[in-house]
Write a structure and sequence with these properties.
The protein is an alpha/beta fold. The protein has 15 helices and seven strands. It has a five-stranded mixed β-sheet with strand order 1-2-3-5-4. A hairpin with a 2-residue loop joins strand 2 and strand 3. Helix 3 packs antiparallel against helix 7.
Length: 367
């Protein structure tokens, strides 16, 4: 009898090694593939309906409550607090996503003519796009947020989460403290649809700051990865809704959603890890005719499509769906319209999958 497919662990440090092996493990075409993430038993879920059922039932995230608490924000809560805060954040992000003028001005550093017309270097790209998001959401009057403060602060956040998950003692996080201080200062004078909605819903500024830190950590690389794929495809500077939908189908930034089984599932054992990969499910010919072909017209007849989950699914689905779509459209207004490029599939850094131009390299990304 064939045993579980051996795979690397799920830590950030191992994901560059894990990504191609996960794609290889999915080649069997089975709906469920039994795997082993080092010492943890697991499953690769490749059937869209099974994946949706799993995510809808909201089993615990694979990285655990301790790790989630170390990052903070509404995802660290459960029950009614989680539902109420998530609802507020989804509504605030939806309003922010509709603020196209504000988003465009923020990308331009307060002046659209001042924005670059070529993508920043790959080693700087995640910080650039995340700072743009934070600057817009926090109402920065002069454009995006300082990338140095942001990068070092997010490094502290992710390190604290990894230490907590490994059961290691917490350490001081001076750069996270500086990030919180900088965001607090920004919010003292900032106004934006995002801030206004949360404040009207009774949020204190210190809680909003905590949520901005979580959004930055959760979205690190995501927008940069999707825009990198779009530029590699030669997407126009004014993409249609169908083009953005198809971009997110073929090249979703999220390729790894991890849950721990509760024991109520009709497969696996309590405590097993289950991996749902939108990247793989979106490439299933069962759900998508000619799944590997970029075809924006495929959404004309069925939206939403049951096999479509670029932002996950269920109660813990990414809250930034509408905001991220607006970001892509605005970013392509600045960076789109060029020719398609020779490219290869990979990870932009360690977390988000993308179609990456073969000459889009730098020492940090390749090291």
């Amino acid at each position: 009898m064939t045993g579980p497919v051996p795979l690397p662990g799920l830590s950030i440090a191992e994901r560059r090694e894990l990504f191609p092996l996960l794609l290889e493990a999915a080649a069997s075409g089975a709906e469920l593939v039994q795997v082993a993430f080092r010492e943890r038993s697991g499953w690769l879920v490749l059937h869209a309906a099974t994946a949706r059922e799993l995510l809808r039932n909201s089993p615990p995230k694979g990285r655990g409550e301790i790790s989630r608490s170390a990052v903070g924000g509404y995802p660290s809560h459960d029950g009614e607090i989680f539902r109420r805060r998530r609802r507020d954040v989804v509504a605030a992000l939806s309003l922010a996503g509709a603020d196209i003028d504000g988003m465009t001005n923020s990308l331009g550093g307060g002046s659209p003519s001042a924005a670059p017309t070529a993508l920043p270097p790959r080693r700087e790209r995640s910080a650039y796009f995340t700072a743009w998001m934070i600057g817009h959401l926090a109402g920065a009057s002069a454009g995006g947020f300082d990338t140095h403060t942001l990068t070092r602060g997010i490094d502290d956040v992710m390190d604290a989460a990894k230490r907590a998950q490994a059961g290691e003692p917490a350490e001081e996080s001076p750069h996270r403290d500086l990030l919180v201080l900088a965001l607090s200062s920004l919010l003292s004078t900032g106004r934006s649809p995002f801030l206004d909605h949360l404040r009207d819903a009774g949020w204190r500024d210190r809680d909003i700051v905590g949520e901005l830190v979580v959004l930055a950590a959760a979205g690190w690389e995501s927008t940069a990865a999707v825009v990198t794929s779009a530029v590699a495809l030669g997407m126009s500077s004014r993409p249609s809704t169908g083009e953005v939908d198809e971009l997110l189908r073929l090249f979703p930034a999220s390729w790894l959603i991890v849950r721990a089984l509760t024991g109520s599932e009709p497969w696996g054992q309590r405590g097993d890890l289950a991996v749902v990969s939108p990247w793989l499910i979106h490439r299933s010919d069962e759900n998508w005719p000619d799944a590997g072909v970029f075809d924006p017209e495929r959404f004309a007849e069925q939206r939403p499509h049951p096999g479509y989950m670029p932002f996950g699914s269920g109660p813990r689905r990414c809250p930034a769906d509408s905001y991220a779509r607006s970001q892509v459209a605005v970013a392509m207004g600045r960076f789109g319209g060029g020719p398609d490029q020779q490219a290869e599939i990979g990870l932009l850094d360690c977390r988000s999958s993308a179609l990456i131009p073969t000459d889009d390299r730098d020492e940090k990304a390749d090291g």
